[in-house]
Design a protein that fits this description.
- The complex is a heterodimer.
- A two-stranded antiparallel ribbon of chain A has the order 1-2.
- Chain A has a single domain, classed as MetI-like fold, CATH 1.10.3720.10.
- Helix content of chain A is 69%, strand content 1%.
- By secondary structure, chain A is mainly α.
- Residues 1-18 of chain A have low confidence and may be disordered.
- Chain A is flat.
- Chain B folds into two domains: 7-94 and 176-326, P-loop containing nucleotide triphosphate hydrolases (Rossmann fold, 3-Layer(aba) Sandwich), CATH 3.40.50; 103-175, no CATH class.
- In chain B, the strands form two sheets. In chain B, strands 6-7-8-3-9-10-12-11 form an eight-stranded mixed beta sheet, with helices on both faces. In chain B, strands 2-1-4-5 form a four-stranded antiparallel beta sheet, with helices on one face.
- Chain B is of the alpha/beta class.
- The longest helix of chain B has 18 residues, at 190-207.
- Classes of the chains: A mainly alpha, B alpha/beta.
- Chain A binds chain B through residues 7-12, 14, 16-19, 21, 190-192, 194-202, 205, 209-210, 213-214, 294-297, and chain B through 57-59, 88-93, 96-97, 99, 101, 104-111, 118-119, 122-123, 143-146, 149-150, 152-154, 156-157, 159, 161-162, 167, 170-171, 191-192, 195.
């Protein structure tokens, strides 16, 4: 709880209110949406880390009676979400697919953010010339349709997971780069940067300690939105046959394969699609919570939220 | 003033090159800060006082700004020509600055303790935990109640006056020889202004630190400064001991300033505004920059820039008619 202590005033006749910051889990508990999102992401992380090992070969086990099975319990608990055209458990495949899907999307987005963020900071803070070179490179990347770029690169190279990640990351990098540069251009003009320079700090120190912490929440937000579109791009590439190759599976690939059966067995595409949506939504909700929780000026919104409920 | 100067600025010239015109923000300013003394730079908006300060702190953005001349000797070296790496070693340690807007000068996402501790860490003074301890002690020194607890608070949780105290704590953390305070109290209300000025005065007395106080407030100048330099259109038009300058100004601008200031008027006296408007710095008048607004102006003022005249011991004035003005009573 918030403790408010008032000490005798002095000097500027100012009541001293000392708020003890609440631990993050209490803040999370108060925001129920964020809490649900966090639980869901934890479940996904669990699937990602030990799902495939836990299920063994359940995901590849054929059950011919359960071909395109309707969701329900007739074929046993693993077929609760139905079966695919070869009679494999959809639930098991979703769990196993989580690893590929999330690791590809997360790695790609993370690389894009790191590279884009770093280049953006350099472009925004270092001289004009460097900035021009970096921005024109970003223009080049952005001027190709990203799908075309991906098709060409993956066609020339092998369609391996590593290449897929690199292609996805490359096409995403300019977004982070531009946003970071724009933010840096604004932040570098703020007085506290001058104040820090007046205290004798160098460029690197200012970038790391004064600019990066302010840009980071923005990048984090873009990252969660991007996470979804990278998953979809990956599914698009998988659909074209140059992404993840069967028998490996991803949610995107499952959506793509399920498309053929939309009329007979809608659940084949529906459940993987739902997984993509929930994963993205959770990431989004949690990131907006995180943005509030890490912003010292906005944090009180999370802290007072509960009090209003108590009053009712 | 037989003391050896701590900072001696000579003939400082700063320009801003915008699209078509060249704005001459500072046109050969001279001023000197002595150890342990407070120099006030007094002037209206656009007189070049803040630009001078930024230039000395090497905060001037180049381009569009450009230092086109002058020297600033500090501890016997010209800091304007010093390589940036070398300057960084000195900046904050030997010379520090307090800005006008304390909220903007603090990074919103870090606690004030962290930011004060940063000062020590930049100069590699001590370990992280020790830096935090010292930050707490500093906050206590600048008069923040419950300082040891408040190091963990963020800038937005402080009032305006308290934020300025935090800024002062950061600036004096490494016991600089010279503190440049750029209108430190302009954003604060009057009672808090006085407290902040007292704090700066106390700290300077305690540690023998010199202060250059940039202000447009005559009252503040009278309260804290030892010497004053009055700036107009990028030049120091009058300088000397505060009491002397404000009692017997030797430049028409200072005189006009005093006659227009409520603090300097006696009861019943009318305030006399300064006619005209400040000069266009891209297009300065010929001769003396002040002549279009000056009651004493004669032909020579229009034609020829005035020389620097010494009207009394330690008193300078840049006016053709300095002697006449010097004998003019302020209260008329």
């Amino acid at each position: 709880m918030t403790t408010v202590t008032t000490t005798p005033t002095s000097g500027e006749a100012e009541a001293v209110i000392i708020r003890r910051a609440q631990p993050w889990w209490q803040l999370l508990w108060r925001d129920k949406f964020a809490c649900v999102a966090a639980v869901w992401l934890t479940v996904l992380a669990f699937c990602l880390i030990i799902g495939p090992e836990l299920l063994g070969d359940t995901a590849t086990q054929l059950n011919l009676r359960a071909r395109n099975a309707v969701p329900g319990l007739e074929n046993g608990p693993m077929w609760i979400l139905g079966g695919d055209p070869l009679g494999r458990s959809l639930l098991a495949r979703l769990i196993v697919g989580a690893r590929n899907t999330i690791s590809v999307a997360l790695t790609a987005v993370f690389i894009a953010m790191t590279v884009g963020g770093t280049l953006g900071m350099v472009a925004g803070y270092v001289g004009k010339w460097v900035s021009h070179v970096i921005m024109r490179l970003a223009d080049v990347v952005q001027s190709f349709p990203s799908l075309l770029l991906a098709v060409i690169v993956l066609y020339m190279l092998e369609p391996r997971v590593g290449n897929l990640i690199i292609v996805l990351a490359t096409t995403r990098t300019p977004i982070y780069l531009r946003v970071t540069r724009a933010e840096v251009l604004e932040i570098r003009e703020r007085v506290f940067v001058d104040a820090s320079r007046a205290l004798g700090s160098g460029r690197f120190h200012i970038l790391r300690n004064h600019i990066a912490p302010i840009v980071a929440p923005t990048l984090l937000t873009i990252m969660t939105v991007d996470f979804a579109s990278v998953m979809l791009s990956e599914s698009g590439l998988s659909f074209l046959g140059i992404g993840i190759q069967p028998p490996a599976i991803t949610w995107g690939l499952m959506v793509a394969q399920g498309r053929n059966y939309l009329a007979q067995a809608w659940w084949l595409a529906f459940f993987p699609g739902l997984m993509i949506m929930f994963a993205t939504l959770s990431a989004n909700i949690l990131s907006s919570w995180l943005r509030l929780a890490t912003d010292p000026v906005q944090r009180w919104r999370l802290e007072t939220h509960k009090k209003e409920e108590d009053d009712k | 003033m037989a003391d050896k100067p701590l900072l001696e600025v000579r003939d400082l010239k700063v320009e801003f090159r915008t699209g078509r015109e060249i704005v001459k923000a500072v046109n050969g300013a001279n001023f000197t800060a002595y150890p342990g003394k407070t120099l006030a730079i007094l002037g209206e908006s656009g007189s070049g006082k803040s630009v001078s300060a930024q230039t000395i702190m090497r905060l001037l953005q180049i381009p569009p700004g450009a230092i086109t001349g002058g020297t600033a000797m500090f501890h016997g070296v010209d800091i304007l020509k010093m390589p940036m790496d070398e300057w960084r070693q000195m900046s904050g340690k030997k010379m520090a600055m307090v800005f006008q807007d304390a909220l903007a000068s603090l990074n919103p996402v870090f606690t004030v303790g962290w930011q004060i501790a940063e000062t020590f860490r930049i100069h590699g003074e001590c370990s992280r935990s020790e830096a935090f301890d010292r930050a707490g002690a500093l906050l206590e020194r600048v008069g923040i109640p419950a300082a040891r607890d408040r190091v963990k608070d963020f800038p937005h949780q402080f009032s305006g006056g308290m934020r300025q105290r935090v800024m002062i704590a950061m600036a004096v953390a490494l016991k600089p020889d010279l503190l440049i305070a750029d209108e430190p109290t302009t954003a604060l209300d009057v009672t808090v202004q006085a407290q902040i000025m007292d704090l700066i005065k106390d700290i300077s007395k305690e540690s023998g630190m010199s202060v250059i106080l940039i202000t447009h407030d005559l009252g503040v100048v009278v309260d804290v400064a030892d010497t004053v330099a009055v700036m107009y259109a990028g030049r120091v038009v009058e300088g000397g001991n505060v009491i002397d300058v404000l009692q017997q100004p030797a430049h028409p601008y200072t005189l006009a300033l005093l006659r227009s200031a409520p603090q300097a008027r006696e009861k019943g006296e009318r305030l006399q505004p300064i006619v005209g408007s400040p000069p266009d710095l891209a297009n300065l008048p010929t001769g003396c920059s002040f002549h279009p607004r000056c009651a004493f102006a004669t032909d020579i003022c229009r034609r020829q820039a005035p020389p620097i005249k010494s009207v009394a011991e330690g008193r300078i004035s840049e006016c053709h008619h300095a002697e006449t003005v010097h004998h003019e009573p302020v209260h008329a």
